[in-house]
Amino acid sequence: MTEQAVLTARGLTKRYGRVTALNNCDFDLYPGEILAVIGDNGAGKSTLIKAISGAVHPDEGAIELDGKQVHFKSPIEAREAGIETVYQNLALSPALSIADNMFLGREIRKPGPLGSWFRMLDRPAMEKRARDKLTELGLMTIQNISQAVETLSGGQRQGVAVARAAAFGSKVVIMDEPTAALGVKESRRVLELILDVKKRGLPIVLISHNMPHVFEVADRIHIHRLGRRLCVVDPKQISMSDAVALMTGAKKPPEDALAA
Amino acid sequence: MSQMQEYEKVLSSSDTSVAAFEEHGKSFVKRAQHFLHSTPAAVPLIVLVLSIIIFGIAIGSRFFSSYTLTLILQQIAIVGILGAAQTLVILTAGIDLSIGVIMVISAVIMGNCAITYGMPTLLAVIVGLAAGGACGLLNGLLVAYMKLPPFIVTLGTWNIVMATNFIYSANETIRDADVDAQAPLLHLFALSFRVGSAVLTAGVIAMVLLVLFLWYVLNHTAWGRHVYAVGDDPEAAKLSGIQTKTVLVAVYTLAGLIAAFAAWVSIGRNGSISPSAAVTDYNLQAITATVIGGISLFGGRGSILGTLFGAMIVGVVSMGLNMLGADPQWKVLLTGVLIIGAVAIDQWIRKVSV
């Protein structure tokens, strides 16, 4: 990898009281790749992801986006910088419509005085763009774009959350356990969505416990252990059981693993 | 290695079709549930129409007269406006127990400023509105930044504001005649218009316009959508980039401001300004109207139009029972039944996604 990384982190440390969640952790994401992050429960994966998506402020360490140092104070700032996150709980408002959810926090207003004086939302434009995005990602089973998100199936909800991230993410898309709560069929769809997003040139950070899914879509695997990056491995050159052995500490990482 | 490739082979042959979801044949009840789910103001509207029809049949043309029906509107104007304020708060999954007393203290402040201190009446009104807004702001700051439960915060401010009201006013009533003589503007909302036998007061019109305005704001502006999102799932709203704290503070402040506006309307309706009105359970009446109107106490669901219908239902029931010469306690009893019924229906409609 001689390309410049899109997103890098160096020496991230985060402590919650006496608990150390991140311990001098490094992170690299290269253009157009799918980087999987795996690790045991409590290894600090979520904290790492929250730190790079702006939800947590690291105590120490630096994060660079496109070579420029960034200090996100909130997920909103990270979003404005082009980092979109699909959270494990999806961060969708169940009672609001699909279109309202996709544009939550960045609504489109009507042109002219209706929008600037009466602050009126441009529903037709929002619904059209939402529909276009869903179609682009092959989510054709959603018939009514103005139906409430809570009336969707788990897979469809996941699809809406991924579509939202893909629609607005300009630099990085982060997905936290996108297939955790899904059935086989829905997981399949979400994995295809992830590959679709990758095809459109966006690098993706995928956090997952599901080894088969990770090995299927990831280009590189970041193995997280005890609050830091243990090693980075190539899924084509390592078996699933070795990856699990590394992440649980049953096996020591090879010397050159960080170079992968 | 080999294990992984086997796995991939199985996957590639297993499923390539787009996920499809079967439509089950929907029964009438299911369809009704879906309709009510997407049209939250329908239930109170149906109940309102039914109660008008029932009392109309029981009482006859005396009840159906436009005079009686508009009299009901006059009686509910104050509770309707307070209900609108309460709706905003309940939509964020909060509750405001203090708006009733905020209304009373705002009325007392408006009256004292205009009559005792001799301020220009318009300025007195503005001071009163500011006082109401300030009380709401205090609620909002405590809820959003101190992260105290809204029930506790407003239970506290309810008592604080009520006591302040009695201490400040020394429980002295400002008489109707004094208001008329020195500050007729305070009686603005008593202005009435006759259309045939129908009597509409400015207070009624103000209530309807306020509800329509808030309906527009809640449904057609980004801020309104944010109010719903905050009540629905605050964590999701925050992660979606909504400034949840700002929204909460704005909602409570606006509720206080609307309560102060209700104060102005109440001066018009009552004539005099009495600090002892603070013991009236206005806040509970407003919560009743809101709940009967189908606003979910769990937040994020319901239409503010429902609150208007909810207030009207209470008005129709109490007027109808009154005209039938029933014991007033029947009204209280029926209101209780309506509250429980409304919450039960809310729970049932929520299950639509399951």
UniProtKB/TrEMBL annotation, chain A:
The entry's keywords: ATP-binding, Nucleotide-binding
Native source organism of the sequence: Mesorhizobium album
Domain ABC transporter: 7-251
InterPro entries reported for this sequence: AAA+_ATPase, ABC_carbohydrate_import_ATPase, ABC_transporter-like_ATP-bd, P-loop_NTPase
Identification of the protein by name: ATP-binding cassette domain-containing protein
Keyword ATP-binding: yes
PANTHER family reported in the protein's UniProt record: CARBOHYDRATE TRANSPORT ATP-BINDING PROTEIN MG119-RELATED (PTHR43790), SUGAR ABC TRANSPORTER ATP-BINDING PROTEIN (PTHR43790:SF8)
GO molecular function: ATP binding
Organism phylogeny: Bacteria, Pseudomonadati, Pseudomonadota, Alphaproteobacteria, Hyphomicrobiales
SUPFAM superfamilies for this protein: P-loop containing nucleoside triphosphate hydrolases
From TrEMBL, chain B:
InterPro entries hit by this protein: ABC_transp_permease
Compartment annotation: Cell membrane
Pfam families, sorted: BPD_transp_2
Record membrane topology: Multi-pass membrane protein
Keyword set, alphabetical order: Cell membrane, Membrane, Transmembrane, Transmembrane helix
Regions that span the bilayer: 41-59, 71-91, 97-115, 122-145, 151-170, 191-218, 247-267, 304-325, 332-349
Record bears the keyword Transmembrane helix: yes
Protein name (record): ABC transporter permease
